[in-house]
Amino acid sequence: MCRIRLSHVILSYLPFFLMNCMLAKLLRSVLIGLIIAAALLTIFPSLRDTSGLLDNSLSLSIGEAPMSYNSAVKRAAPAVVNIYNRNIHSENGPGINTLGSGVIMNKKGYILTNRHVIVNADQIIVALQNGQIDEALVVGSDTLTDLAVLKIQEGNLPVIPTNTKRTSHVGDVVLAIGNPYNLGQTVTQGIISATGRVGLSPYGRQNLLQIDASINHGNSGGALVNTLGELVGINTLSLDKRTDGDTPEGISFAIPIELAVKIMDKLIRDGRVIRGYIGIGGGDLSRVQAQSGPSIAYREYWSGR
């Protein structure tokens, strides 16, 4: 009978022992994972159904419309016209003196624009976005506010939406519509940076809206509208290049609609803006007046008309 050494027995069973230990650890890890998963599903039932997450995210990205001001532009843009200030009697022949924009305010054919767009014009041509071209008459203009009113033939004219009761605030998104450099109707976007700006030019323009929407040559007299397409101002100017070579960026101005409409109504009614004023004049006093003590004597009345 053969003798079997103990060491040989131990060595022969050692691999099976180690394998069983590793298998036991693996099974224990799997069991712990299953217990944790079951606990999470019990505490958070929403985790049980994840089949629709990918589909929902895809449907949101496909169905969502991008943010756009297209509806506002569609409401306002047809009523914004191109204005050409023509010089007929120039030595070099007829040509365009000034390029600008304007806004059709009502069906009667009244157009608001800037005075500097139409000043010294021999002929004023208005081009609508539908291809219609008319010669305009100057109803009146006002130097102080740099506003002017033109008149074209009545007809089926597009009219800009207005709401003078809506107040503009700093931070409001606005769109500037005009014809910069005669490229054709163009829309730029920005916000109202400030309100009530004064003393910006020799003309004494007052109470302007400061905006950061681009205003270039040809935009003057065009429409500044809100995101509903309502007219909030008449674009008027941007700061020019300074003498030190610095070029301001993102600083433009518009005349508030409330002021523009008041000036327009006065120009249509009277052909000019009649403003009141108070004056003081001096004169010689008689002996009786001098002895009566300090006083103010009413002597004359000057009509503002």
TrEMBL record:
The organism's place on the tree of life at top rank: Bacteria
Catalytic activity field: Acts on substrates that are at least partially unfolded. The cleavage site P1 residue is normally between a pair of hydrophobic residues, such as Val-|-Val
EC number: 3.4.21.107
InterPro entries from the UniProt entry: Peptidase_S1_PA, Peptidase_S1_PA_chymotrypsin, Peptidase_S1C
Single GO BP term: protein quality control for misfolded or incompletely synthesized proteins
Any one GO CC term of the record: plasma membrane
Matching NCBIfam families: PRK10898.1
Assembly and interaction partners: Homotrimer.
Name of the protein this chain belongs to: Serine endoprotease DegS
Organism lineage: Bacteria, Pseudomonadati, Pseudomonadota, Gammaproteobacteria, Enterobacterales
Name of the encoding gene: degS
